[in-house]
Amino acid sequence: MSTQGMILAGCDGDRTWRLQDYVARGGYSALRKIVADKTPQDNIIAELKASVLRGRGGAGFPTGLKWSFMPRSFPGDKYLACNSDEGEPGTFKDRDILRYNPHAVIEGMAIAAYAMGAARGYNYIHGEIFEIYQRFEEALAEAREAKLIGRNILGSDFSFELFAHHGYGAYICGEETALLESIEGKKGQPRFKPPFPASYGLYGKPTTINNTETFASVPFILNMGGEAFLNLGKPNNGGMKLFSVSGHVNRPGNYEIPLGTPFSELLEMAGGVRGGRKLKAVIPGGSSAPVLPADVIMGCTMDYDSISKAGSMLGSGAVIVMDETTCMVKALERLSYFYYEESCGQCTPCREGTGWLYKVVHRIEHGEGRPDDLDLLNSVTGNIMGRTICALGDAASMPVQSFIKHFASEFEYHIENKKCLVPPEVQHAGSNIYVSPSC
Amino acid sequence: MLEIEIDGQQVSVEDGSTVMDAAHQAGIYIPHFCYHKKLSIAANCRMCLVQVEKAPKPLPACATPVTAGMKVWTHSEAAVKAQKGVMEFLLINHPLDCPICDQGGECQLQDLAVGYGGVASRYQEEKRVVFNKNLGSLVSTDMTRCINCTRCVRFTVEIAGEMELGQAFRGEHAEIMPFIEKTVDSELSGNIIDLCPVGALTSKPFRFSARTWEMSRRRSVSPHDSLGANLIVQTKHDVVKRVLPLENEELNECWLSDKDRFSYEGLNSDERLTTPLIKQDGEWKAVDWQAALEFAASGLRGIAKDYGPAAIGALGSPHATVEELHLLQKLARGLGSGNVDFRLRQTDFRADAGRAGAPWLGMKVAETGELDRLLVVGSFLRKDHPLLAQRVRQATKRGLLVSVVGPNAEEWLLPVRARALVAPSALVDTLAQIVVALAAEKGVAIDERLSGFPAQAGDDARAIAASLASGRKVAVWLGNLAVQDQRAAELQLLANEIARLAGGTAGVIGEAANSVGGYLAGAVPSADGLDARQQIEQPRKAYVLLGAEPELDFADPAATVAALGGAQLVVALSAFVSPSLREVADVLLPVAPFAETSGTFVNAEGRAQSFVAVARPQGDTRPAWKVLRVLGNVLELAGFDYNDSEAVRDEALAGDIAARLDNRVDGVALSAVAAPAGALERVADVPIHFADPLVRRAPALQRTRDAAAPVARASRATLAALGLAGGERVRLAQGAARAELTIVADDKLADGCVRVAAAHPDTATLGALSGAISVERI
Amino acid sequence: MLSQESLQQIDREIAKYPPDQKQSAVMSALRIAQVEKGWLANETIEFVAGYLGMPAIAVYEVASFYNMYDLHPVGRHKITVCTNLPCALSGGVHVAEYLKEKLGIDFNETTPDGKFTLKEGECMGACGDAPVLLHNNHRMCSWMTREKIDQMLAELDGK
Ligand SMILES: Cc1cc2nc3c(=O)[nH]c(=O)nc-3n(C[C@H](O)[C@H](O)[C@H](O)COP(=O)(O)O)c2cc1C
Ligand code: SF4
Ligand code: FES
User: Which sequence ranges form a coiled-coil region, renumbered to this chain (chain C) (predicted)?
Assistant: First the structure.
């Protein structure tokens, strides 16, 4: 495990997830200070605004601003939800945060609860990481025992109950309102907004949802000060961020680096392209982010603004690296299948459109493409984007549009020649996506 | 109020309105599928996308709240492009075989596809196939056509009150279904057929029997419960093919109960009586009308001459029209007899002497939505009055607190705040307790008529009183059980008193389509006449029977069959023949059911609703009002020269109806009779699909769960006291009357009671709907 | 219907939510029921519905929506392989192919002896450890190679 960074700094031992170890690393000092000083809620939110911490779950919304939306004098319960549903292909940072430093999340949530006056919180944990869910439960027990959560935290009159909710296999539950529905014991189908969760959230009560990494950053920000955090990164892109690097690199894994670090440095940290091959393309922010060709990404720094300028999104910070052996049609086919499989089925464009997209890409990959298929794909994605209840529709469309845009010749070759531009043996040698019979 | 601009039109709409509401107000149509004004907003179909100024993407009109100064274009290029895009998605997996779809011609998808669909499908992949589901005998499925708008799901949850359908699986595999092997058993289930915008849910009885454009549509009024649901009856070649709701926001809204919707099948039953019959020497003989009427007239004249006119009784169904009941009483009175009644299942008529007017709901049906407290006494509300129950259900979501008194506590699918579960014999005492508790809550004295009544308020009564006392708009409703109770008059008196103390209204829900109309038509006994019960207990020599079946429509089937069977002459006007009618009657006159006659029903709120025939009477059937008119002529009675049914109605309902509605009763004494210790009491529900002769003969309804053969029910404690285990066959006895049923444990009943349905062939041999009953293991 | 122990576990889950929000425990309840019973039969779903005071179809909606629930019997060992892009780039599909070959079954099939069921999974949030697979929903196996698969199967075969 990397020992650099912020949240994961020093998390290379065996038991770094234990309360004792966290405290030894300086953990819970921020919460203790707040509770002891009775820090005004506004000061905390101001500190967060100063830090320019942007949500780490994908949308990059400024966290301090989001917190300020919570109604102050709401009679009755307010809720917090932590989004650890991490299901965006390529993203695996929250799992490591929960695995190695769960108390940072707990402390961050407790501080958030204090700042927003929330009485209860849930951490929604991705279905497939049951062991992590169990570990988080243990961490919660430790924190409760130490009076860091629960009634009268650290002897004060501040109380906050925190529980873990375990998902069971649905990418869509990462969407914040689907996540709330899921906690309510329903299918994870996103809600139409407005009303937004800050006014109508969990059980109809004001609710703030943040990503695991967002919450985990909070104690560090309060300890070092918002300004210092901002300065770790670059203007408008405050702080450190975890990047999950996967695919064709020598050392896949999480790298917590300052925002604004050149992509080339990140690639180097990850050991460079596997087998010394040539970089072909990178999806810089999780599968929903538009793919960028090698030359474009090599000119980027890893922060919201730079990646956005290049035509993609920093998203969750999941960097999927593809080398020259990758067939882009096949890569897109797999991603399209994912969105088709994971559409919640609620709204028409996504329910019907994701299947259509997959079927057409599948056809192209299997040598049955038609000359006007690329136009069709562009048109269908156009009819999905911006017309759905949640952003999954966009998420399913952006890969299609960007793959076609940047790798049109590969698609055209496929349609014309009924086979991959990248010869099967090359694909075999490099990428390990299966090679379909038609190739 | 907010000012917005929609398609260039300025509209001012209420805060909290949606763009869809605003468009509706401006008379602008926005295409939609999932949106329905009575259901929660799902915003899932995306058909209603519109362009909104400054919004980066099209927004769904159904879910987008209006904001001040908002500018909306519903048919701009951008809006139409979005709508067309959605339409294309809806059609890719939808079969394009409208000609073989039962929804063809009345399909929202088909209609909109014409305007918004592309020319040729760009979708060349295989279409999705979804297996059909068995939802029961009323709703047919063709699930491949489903567009997942979830209207049906939301209906079951929100309107019917029980989630019987869901959307299982996800993504493209999402499917609407009931839980495995379950059917949809709601008494309101047919509404999902109307709600379904495509041909996924269609009417099973109607399936493929006609196309919508081949049928004529006429308005009518439901002849069943006292709500007076408005109907559109569709006929083809004079046969009723289908019944749909005619929207009336004040009554049925856009809904119908399954009974209202599917009972029309009974119109075409094999048991329709289509020619006049007379019995001679024990043999039935078809005759022409002239002969039949003369036979009846001379018979009646003979009885009047031989035994005096008081030997004649006249009994009409509360499902008969105002015109029919008016002429029935006029006929009896013309013959000199004051023995007329239409309250066939009632047993206590003590209130008649002091009634201030016709008992009615005491309020408008639509005012249910404004109530904040409601006490329902003695009712099977959900099955007896499905749409009224639905209104109560909706009102509870807006804060209405419902209290219930009665021997039954079956599920109404609405929250009950407080309940007194008591045997029928304790109803009066329980209401008296509520009066006492309420008077204490309000700090006022009790009406002198009630003073001395030894009521010590128990916990349940106090809880109910406390709830009523805190209300702003309160109602007390007496249900069918209360009206049929042996001490109905006292219940009425007490209900009035509770309402008075709570500052609310007391009302009678009314059993049948014309429970109010019968009073207005004068179909109640004269001062010296006999009421329905007396006419049976003191058998007459002759009866004129209108639209009722002796063993199913009366308070005491065994006694009724005996009384009618022993009479010298029974003239029965009926739409149907049945073995019991053949047995007791001497003349059978085929009269038209509601669809084949004009007439009027006055519903629970006192609203007179007239309708005309939607089909020609079958065979030699004649409208009953005409038959009675001619019979009056043959008998040479005065005042029987009407040109049309309107003239009869105008005579019957002359004057201000509202002024004739009044629930007050005078001169009823409260008595403190204790129930005989240890005696079992019968509680009789009238099952929803057996309540009247028409619905009994509707085959699809008879195959629903609601029409399952009756069992006897008793609480576990009662069963234990009887030494019985649930599931055993028992013999039930009321005096000499007997029936055999299976008995089951049902803790939704007060102890000491046995619930045995009435109006069903299996229990028709029993006696009174209330009172003592005994049970023994066979 | 469910063991005392399972019911206790479900009760612990119910306690996490406000008293009038028992339904929130449905996902855990189904998971616990599935662990005990191996899969979710209709009776099990109905039981859970009754236990939580929910309509059966509402529970079925949940059970059919989340793909880790099994609405049909599965083998004693359910192996779910992630074949999503990041994993596929690092051999995820080869792992699946190898398992198919070794077990003689395709995705969504169970070996005739009822021991193994193979499923294709979506992203498990562990792409850095690719190829990954999930054993019986609850145990993640990382960096799978042929050797590790052989070893795993041999181990499970004995159980
Ligand atoms: C389809 C979809 C999937 C998402 N998945 C995740 C996820 O797995 N984790 C996450 O934190 N946010 C996810 N999001 C974003 C959340 O909706 C939400 O913006 C985020 O949790 C807010 O937290 P943040 O402001 O701290 O980023 C997803 C959004 C969509 C539309
Ligand atoms: S966009 Fe897809 S995932 Fe989102 S609500 Fe619509 S159907 Fe569900
Ligand atoms: S009617 Fe608005 S989305 Fe369906």
Answer: none
